[in-house]
Amino acid sequence: MTYDIADPGLAESGVRRIEWADRSMPVLRRIRERFAAERPLDGLRVAACMHVTTETANLIRTLQAGGAEVALAASNPLSTQDDTAAALVHEYGAAVFARQGIDRDGYYRHIHQALQIAPDLVLDDGCDLVNILHTERLDLLDGVRGGCEETTTGVIRLHQMAREGALRFPMVAVNDTDTKHMFDNRYGTGQSTLDGIVRATNTLLAGKTIVIAGFGYCGRGLAERARGMGGRVVVTEIDPVKALDAVLQGYRVLPMAQAAEHGDVFITVTGNRDVIRGEHLARMKDGAILANSGHFDVEIDVRALADLAVDVHRGVRPQADEYVLADGRRLVLLAEGRLVNLAAAEGHPAAVMDMSFADQALTCGWLVGQTLLPGVYDVPKEIDTEVAGLKLASMDVELDALTPGQEEYLSSWRQGS
């Protein structure tokens, strides 16, 4: 088995942390037990490009229990936990290609190394692995049965590929299933992003004006939690429906050009590029904090920030760089503009990733038995419902059941009021 990790000596620490996360992942644990008995992935090779965290490690263990051989590359250089990578290699037998803080060339080299497994299935977080398959490793395309995409940014790119007729195998948009985006995006991103900002800056959010760019599920979760911590929340949006939703929830909605003058903390969660640009940076107040929780490091124009600066103080705090402008104002960029919740904190709580990775595991098992044309597919509703039911059961929550009369009423149009 080949691999590229930072320090094999960290494996023991990694095992302890993986097992700690596993305690909060009862749904995935039950699926792992089922996979071990049924072996739905027996003999299959899986290439994954995902955040190398303790939660991901428990997904990899579940796929292995189902019979899969797994190769894993990191989907973000700053989110890799080196002890988790070491444990996956030396304790759990996965081929891992990930080092914390690796440069751009190393990042793409690791994806290529993971693809050397010649995958039957792929798991992606941001569509970089799928992109490389379609641009540089076309020789492997015919062997890929399908795969899953974990994040909004990746799903956007997959739909673009499908519209252009470029996508060569079926991909399931795991991000779009309710037990993923309603909980992972909203509760996970909402909590972990603020966690990362506070760890990196030790700032008090109460009383601050917090500008949130994008009011999808991630933006809603952030706004709820920022307001709950005493922040004055301003939302920027391009979608009239989402903007109206924000207004009716009591948030102030402004264009970024106006919000730039008021914000103390700026958080981007759009999936698009150049959301905060040079003209916005030029209007910001001294000490403004810039954080990104969208997938790629393109939402804040870091080059424009560097061009405006006359000096840069690197590492004024862990994952915080201070850019000094010509007029003396200081803007603080967190995590180099990358995912602040994973670079400056530990990402989503394991209890949330339990559902997202349960969706991933069950969808992999479902894909094996399907014959699908190339395209982007939704997670089957029964998988979504099963994951939600398992999560509720793990929380000792019981539901009502329809009576026969209620079922008949709902299934017939002949009964009036």
Structure description:
The chain is of the alpha/beta class and 417 residues long. It folds into two domains: 8-180 and 348-394, Rossmann fold; 189-343, Rossmann fold. The protein is built from 17 helices and 15 strands. The strands form two sheets. It has an eight-stranded mixed beta sheet, sandwiched between helices. A seven-stranded parallel beta sheet has the order 3-2-1-4-5-6-15, with helices on both faces. Helix 1 packs across helix 3 (54-65). It is globular. The model has no long low-confidence stretch (mean pLDDT 96).
Brief overview:
Belongs to the adenosylhomocysteinase family. This protein has 417 residues and is an alpha/beta fold.
| Percentage of β-strand residues | 15-25%
Under the CATH scheme, the architecture of the largest domain is 3-Layer(aba) Sandwich
Evaluate the radius of gyration: 22 Å
Task: Using the coordinates above, name the CATH class of the largest domain.
Answer: Alpha Beta
Question: Which short descriptors sum up this protein?
Answer:
Rossmann fold, eight-stranded mixed β-sheet, alpha/beta, globular, 417 residues, 17 helices, seven-stranded parallel β-sheet, 45% helix, 2 domains
Give the topology.
Elements: H1 11-23, H2 26-38, E1 45-50, H3 54-65, E2 69-74, H4 82-90, E3 95-97, H5 104-115, E4 121-124, H6 128-135, E5 146-149, H7 152-163, E6 170-173, H8 178-201, E7 209-213, H9 217-228, E8 232-236, H10 240-248, E9 252-253, H11 256-262, E10 265-268, H12 278-281, E11 289-292, H13 302-308, E12 309-317, E13 320-325, E14 330-334, H14 340-343, H15 350-368, E15 375-377, H16 381-394, H17 404-411
